[in-house]
């Protein structure tokens, strides 16, 4: 967001709670839609160089094998890019390097906001304050800016939790398949993975669980090993090359649709506005798309309440479809009943190409105002 605004001539100050850049999280897949945004901002090639290109995505059943395959190279012919997998910390560093010097105030957070006329005033945790024309809340699923702006936000638990990690120095796929990504569905769980660089793999596992369950690091590893051995023994090398302390556990939830994404001159983007479950791999992508669309809208209409409203009109339809579709996928991937699982697999295998192409267009086409100019 800040990069796009700075490139359009705006002065931007980011307030970041953490003390500095740290390697956090596991991996992330940047699909063709955010890659198009990065290209417009001038640094897509840096993302590609820092990550690993995914040319084929395999969706499999743990017993019967391939359900669907998606040729990402074919998608690239229309949308310019294949999916790029990389470490979240690497992506964060690359984005930071595109900012103007002194754009980020680390170790600080917004404690309160007030609006008066054409300005917004923010009180910060270091005792200082600042005034601005607008405030963009990009502070994620548990957004404090959403709360301070009075925009609500009801969380919806999916019934599944997840493990995410990096397998370092792993040798999982043969050389001829190293540009493939896999997601395998099983009874009450699934696993997915791809390379993120020449040496390492990103992997994730989802499983049915009550909300808020707490596990120790050793319990997490033991549980993951149990599921790998029961359903994914071919891929247990992922776990064997992962340090126990590196396995992150996160419940999978989304936000019920907000009535509005802004209040006056304060607005939200990304997970703060419309957190989605990860089943389409589009959470980060939606935030990146938001950034370009909002920057273009500000350039068109100025730093105004009207721009916030226009941005929401522009983005809400695609976001709503993404959140809804992702939620629906989450409800079918863990099926345990063999008959239902078989029927699901047959239905997915027989999905007409026209339906698949329509879904591809909905995912990878951009909503930016610049598309209409």
Automatic annotation (TrEMBL):
This is 2-polyprenyl-6-methoxyphenol hydroxylase-like FAD-dependent oxidoreductase. It comes from the Bacteria. One of its GO terms (molecular function) is monooxygenase activity. The keyword Flavoprotein does not apply. SUPFAM superfamilies: FAD/NAD(P)-binding domain (SSF51905). Residues 2-301 form the FAD-binding domain. Keywords: Monooxygenase, Oxidoreductase. Gene3D superfamilies: FAD/NAD(P)-binding domain (3.50.50.60). The lineage of its organism: Bacteria, Pseudomonadati, Acidobacteriota, Terriglobia, Terriglobales. PANTHER family: MONOOXYGENASE, PUTATIVE (AFU_ORTHOLOGUE AFUA_6G14510)-RELATED. It comes from Granulicella arctica. InterPro entries: FAD-bd, FAD-dep_Monooxygenase_BioMet, FAD/NAD-bd_sf.
